[in-house]
Amino acid sequence: KSGKENDVIRSAIGVVALYEFGYNDFNQLSSIFDRLLPQKKLEYVKFTSWCAGQLTHHPTVEQSRYASLLFARLTGWTRSKGRRNRNLAAAHLLDSLSLQCGMVVVVFFPALQSIIWHLLSDTSLEVLKATASAINNFTFSIIRYTRSDLNTYLDFFSQIIPSLLNYGESTRKYTALLLLRHLMTNAPDYYLPKFRNLYDLLIDTTYNE
Question: Which H/E stretch holds residue 58?
Fold first, then answer.
């Protein structure tokens, strides 16, 4: 594992290129890629997260297993404290996995429930935007692969959003509005009968903003 940032990019490009050209030892490729995670700088976080998505897109058994491992890793990053915390990397990796291998990540909704507040309570606007994008992609995957779980999923976020709106900080309210926009766009039928209550909540919590 090299400490040089340029080597991270070269290694990630090499792994994805070998994978795309049919290199048949996926375990070796994933082992190399594992050493590149997590990154700290935004551009490196975004790029390695994109690479992770390429490696797990339309997953076979091996890719599904690796996507599950990556999800477990990002869960650990959110629970680490202090300098070991990697919410930025976790949010972007969650976004990429939710987009590229939704059929795998939807089974980790209970794990998502356990870490989502760690991400949504972060002070970084970049983390919050990436988390909202991840929820958008995760919601689409729920609808596509486990639609029977959709109401339970949306009920959970219906508890999260008022908490964010009532938190008292503009950043939290902005995050709540981002989430609500994504959720309503993906599942309008769920929110239609709740519209009046949502409208009143938004007026009460954002009137003076």
Answer: none
Which pLDDT band holds residue 3 (cuts at 50, 70, 90)? low
Report the distance separating Cα 164 and Cα 177, nearest Å: 9
DSSP state of 121: T
Share of the chain above pLDDT 70, in %: 96
C-alpha closest to that of 180 among 203, 160, 206, 196: 160
The residue behind tokens 């975004």 is 46
Q: 19 and 51 in contact (C-beta within 8 Å)?
A: no
- What is residue 130's three-state secondary structure? helix
Collapsing DSSP to helix, strand or coil, 102 comes out as helix
Cβ atoms of 130 and 123 closer than 8 Å: no
CB of 66 closer than 8 Å to CB of 30: yes
Which residue in this structure is represented by tokens 């606007």?
Answer: 125
Distances (CA, A) of 84 to 17, 27, 122, 156, 175: 30, 26, 14, 28, 24
